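Quick entry between incubations.
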Amino acid sequence: MPQNSRLRRSQEINLLDGRSITVIDKLGEGGQGTVYRVCLNDTMEDRALKWYFIEKVRNPHAFYNNLKDNIEKGAPSSAFVWPEELTEWVDGTFGYIMRIFPGQYKDFSKYLMARVKFGSYGAMVNAALNIVSAFKALHNKGYNYQDLNDGNFSIEPRMGDVLICDNDNIMGHGQSSGILGKARYMAPEVVRGDIAPNRQTDRFSLGVILFMLLVGDHPLEGAKTNVPALINKYDKKFFGTEPLFIFDENDNSNMPVQGLHKNAISFWPCIPKFMQKAFSKSFSQESLLKGAGRLQEQEWLHLLVQLKSSIAKCPRCGSEMFIESNGETMCPDCKSLIKPVGYLKFAKRRSNIEISVPIFEGIRLYEYHMNDGSEDYQTEAAVVLAKPGKFGLQNCSRHLWTVTAVDGRTSTRQQGDVAILGLGFKIDFGNGNTAEIVPN
Amino acid sequence: MGMLDKAEILRRMCPVIFLLDASGSMAGAPMGAVNAAMEGILPELISMNNDNPDVEIEIAVLTFHSGTDWVTGSSLVNPENYVWKDLDARGVTSMGAAFKELEKVLSVSHGFVNRASGSVAPVIFLLTDGEPTDNYQDGLQALRDNNWYKCAAKVAVGYGQSNDAVLREFTGNPETVLHTNDPKDLTNLIRFVTITSSMVASRGAAAPVNDADAAADPNDTTNAVAAALKTAPPVLSNSTDPDEEW
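Done. Structure below.
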């Protein structure tokens, strides 16, 4: 038995950088090791220590060196609970320290099992945006995650803040002998054994995660995959050789099943068409069988900001819902179909995606909309107001807006002012970034 | 709540089936150890279910004595909804009858493994302190023709005078048969074997990688459990006796 895998309370361990830590207590245990709460002896700050069962680590020295490299390169963004420093080797094994993440962060799996729910639509969409931004940063730094699945995220339910865990295993993936466990999250070409995981296959997994986060069911699990039998032997078929999107536009043989795939049936009609299209493209036969048409993080980002600017309250029942610029969406609670009177159509496309915002009371715009160089989807910049007979757009930003009417007359709006949303009006948000008011 | 009020995602099922010897020779400390083990295993299975969005464990318990009893009823039960009822020991060791009874329920159409979203390879745990007093060969042969049995993680614990050769025949892998002569150790051993194998099985077995229609090696799950039993780190004993023998 691997006695060296256990640490004693109060045991002191040296870190590679010369500092040392003291073991406080055990926080948890995973397949590869134990996680302890430790204290940095110089500053008395708490950290988590992942301590490996060395026999569970393939090629430990290469693994150690890979971790060392990753520590030197640093975290792609603050969302990653990145290894901070390695320990020295102790009795043939080692560990690394990382920050302890706060208790209000809940594993994504808890959301899937409906044990935890988001506090608002804004939090849910923020979580999606935060995941996408984190993976954009990861890919831009030249890493691939390789085995993206529901076990890698912890999400704060009120704000949608995201932490990405298990960042130590990047090298280990793709080296296992068979396909284990998370076939449902792997790109079909990886399940088929055609290629090793890469950035493109990460993008497939990201699409699955986003679908599950927003819609609440698995995009490839429907009537066809419902086999009351020993299921593992079908995994390669369902997720590799014959995968089929549950809402495939040309083949309805894998439609969600009444009573089983409840979320997919209830909520798919409630998400705007531009998101439905993005998912249909991500899980088209072209994508599933040829790896074509996967969305880049950048594209998801534009779509998700648009989704965030689609959140309003149902005028009939008051529940939160998504409103679509130029189409109808369904309120998930009272099932009313709602269509706005019109929308703001931005002059510039971003990543070849048309940017628009519905004109509907309570819709919010972000710094992102003020400046086409910005990706700030958190700072509110404007809000749609309603009065009997008219809509207005309140400037909550520091940008000076110029509003131009159809006859060419102009007026400016600064922070706190409200611009009337007239038919055919154009608003210049101050950075050469303009939007036109288009009626439905 | 709208889209925030999502239903729980559909999970696959991992059946964990216990075949427990409740013959007269188990009376006293051994039966007590089994009861203590089973009671302690339930919360651990619940906690595993709470952490696994892919697979949900459900259990069934079959006792064998002069006859057989499904003490958990006529279907698998969620460990969350089951309160352990202490077993009593009586009669002889009808292991063959238990094998036949098990074979009957390892079926989609008229058995336990009927979850619409499918099931992963089950765990079948066998415990005995003796040897079969009936013809176990026929029952075992029937099991060997059953596809669920073939792919199951088969594990066994022998206690005292158990005939471990029969247990090895049952699991098909000598490494998933463990033995103890100490009733105090029995509780720990049952717990260790069933929790380790449930953990392996509920993570889902390897999918075939070569051919879409090729079945995976049916021994994969049992082999994976054998490996896990060897490398699983020890846990703290639940002993209350500081003088307990090592």
